[in-house]
Amino acid sequence: MSVQTVAAKMAEVELKDVVGKAASPAISPLTPKAEEKKSESNSTSPAAAAAVTVEPSPVTTAPNPVKMPQASAMKRPDPQLNGGEAFVNYDGTVAEAPRMKKIQFADQKQEFNKRPTKISRRSLSRSISQSSTDSYGSAASYTDSSDDETSPRDKQQKNSKGNADFCIKNIKQADFGRREIEIAEQEMPALMALRKRAQGEKPLAGAKIVGCTHITAQTAVLMETLSALGAQCRWAACNIYSTQNEVAAALAEGGFSVFAWKGESEDDFWWCIDRCVNVEGWQPNMILDDGGDLTHWIYKKYPSMFKKIKGIVEESVTGVHRLYQLSKAGKLCVPAMNVNDSVTKQKFDNLYCCRESILDGLKRTTDVMFGGKQVVVCGYGEVGKGCCAALKAMGSIVYVTEIDPICALQACFQGFSFAFISLLLYVVSVGNKNVVVREYMDRMKNGCIVCNMGHSNTEIDVASLRTPELTWERVRSQVDHVIWPDGKRIVLLAEGRLLNLSCSTVPTFVLSITATTQALALIELYNAPEARYKQDVYLLPKKMDEYVASLHLPTFDAHLTELSDEQAKYLGLNKNGPFKPNYYRSAAA
C-alpha cells in the first residue's frame, strides 16, 4: 500500500470525529487587527526606520468548510503561490496563508534624523546604527564620544581625592575602567608574579618614570606594577586613537598623572607629552617610550633633563631606529635598551599578537569577508609573518613585497607569491616611510582597503590624499572612503595609523610578555652600576628574555627538561641558562 493511500485513510478516520461541526477558514496567526496594533506599537519607537503594511490575501475555502484543529492541519509549500505556504485541510482543499507585501521604506533620512542624539553610555538597547559607530572602532572603549565634544584641555576635573594633575576625557568612567584593568590582570600572569615577588624589595624606589605608550588596560597593569615596585609615573599616549578613555579615567582616579584621550589632535598629542615632562618640582630619571616621540621631545625642548636620566627603554622599531641614529651621530647621551629586538618581543608580540589582531581590526571596521580576497602584505618580518598566516588561514590569496632577500626567501618557502599593487586589501607591516605612496593608490582598484600594521603614520602617504580633487567621506569611526574624481574609492582605516590598537584590541596574554620585558629592562637600567652600560643602544640580556618566558609557562602547565651535567658540559652551557648567545635575536619562522 502506498504512502499516499495510508495518509488518505488516516485522514478519513479523523474526519469522522468532526463531521457536522462548523468550520472557519484558516487564517494567519496575525489577524489584520493584531497586525494593526503591532504596527501602531512599532511606530511609537523613535528608532523606527520603515513602515510595514501587512494585508491578508484572499483565502480560498471549500464550499462546506469543516473546522479542523489548527494543530492537526498540514502545512506545505505551494508552487502556485510563488514559494508561499498553504494550509491543507483534511477535505483536500487548500487555504493560502496571508502573504506580506514588500516592506515599504519611509524617507530614511527623515526618520533617522528623529533618533535621539544622546544615548546613555550604559544603555544595553542601542540601535544598530549607533553601535556601528561606537563599538566597531572603539578599541574596546565603549565610550560614546558624541555625548561630549568639549576638549579635555578645556575641562577642570578632579578625582575623588581632589587631585587634578591629569587630563583625560571623563573621570566619571573610572569604575568601568577599573573593571577593564581587573580583567587584564587575569591574563597577565608574569607581570602579576613580578609585582608579587619584587614588591617587598622595591627595586624601583626613587625612580621617576615618564612614559609614552598606548594607554590600554594592559598598560595600566604595567603602570600599577611599576608603582608597586616603588616608581612614580607620568604618562602620555603614543597614538592619538589607541587610548581607552575609561582606563585613563581609572588611572587618574588611582593617582596617576595621565594625559591622554581617544581622538587627540596633533596639537593635543604634543601638548600631552609636554605636560608629562614639564612639571614644576618633578623631573624624570627614566624614559619608557614607544615610537621615540617622547625621547625626541625631550631632546628638542628640554635637553638638560638628560643629565639626570639614567636610561631609555624603547619597544618599537621606529623608536629603535631613532635611537641608533642618535648613537651613530654621537648624540645619544644615556644608555638605551632595545626591547623591540628582544626575542620575547619579536617572537610573541610582533608575530602572534599581529596574527590575531589583524583579523579583529579588519572585521570591526569593514565587516570584510576574507575568503577569496587578494591581499598584498608589505614586509615579511615578524609582523608580516603574523598577518600573512592569519589572512591565508581565512582563505585569502596573499601576496608579499619585501626588500630583504632572506625574508623574501622565507615567504617563498611558505608558498607566498610576490606582487606590487593590491586588488582588494593592502596591509603595511613595516616601520618605514612612504611604503604606500599616492602613485600606488592611484592605481588601486575600486574598493581596495588600505591599512597599517606598522607603528607610525608615515608608512602610508596620507598627506598626498588631502588634495582638492579627492573627497573624504567618513563612513564609520576610523573608517574613511577616499573618492577619486572618476568615482573610484579606497577604504582607508585609522587614517593610516596602527590598525589593531586604533580600531580593535590585542590579546592581553601576549602583551603580558612585552610588558614584563619592559619592566625588567627598566629595573636593569635603573639599578645597573654606571660602568655597565655606556651611551649606546643595548639588547636585553638573554637571561632576562628567558626569565620572562619562564614566568608564562605555568599558565600552560608546561615543564622544562633539565640538562644533565654531562649534557651541559658538552654544549658549553650553564644548566640554568642562558641557552642562547646574546647575539641571537630570533629563530626563522
Distance between the termini: 68 Å
Q: Rg from C-alpha positions?
A: 32 Å
Unreliably modeled segments: 1-85, 100-147
Helix content: 25-40%
Strand order of the largest sheet: 12-11-10-13-14-17-16-15
Mean pLDDT level:
79
Class from secondary-structure proportions = alpha/beta
CATH class label of the domain at 154-345 and 507-562? Alpha Beta
Biggest sheet, open or closed, and with what strands and sense?
Answer: 8 strands, mixed
Any idea of the CATH topology of the domain at 154-345 and 507-562?
Rossmann fold
- The percentage of residues in β strands lies in 5-15%
Number of strands: 18
Number of helices: 19
The CATH homologous superfamily name of the domain at 154-345 and 507-562 equals Adenosylhomocysteinase-like
The CATH architecture of the domain at 154-345 and 507-562 is: 3-Layer(aba) Sandwich
Overall shape: globular
Structure, described:
With 589 residues, this protein is α/β, with parallel strands linked by helices. Among the domains are: 248 residues, 3-Layer(aba) Sandwich (Rossmann fold), CATH 3.40.50; 154 residues, NAD(P)-binding Rossmann-like Domain (Rossmann fold, 3-Layer(aba) Sandwich). The chain has 19 helices and 18 strands. The chain has an 8-stranded mixed beta sheet with strand order 12-11-10-13-14-17-16-15, with helices on one face. Strands 6-5-4-7-8-9-18 form a 7-stranded parallel beta sheet, sandwiched between helices. A 3-stranded antiparallel beta sheet has the order 1-2-3, with no helix packed on it. α5 packs across α8 and α6 packs parallel to α17. It is globular.
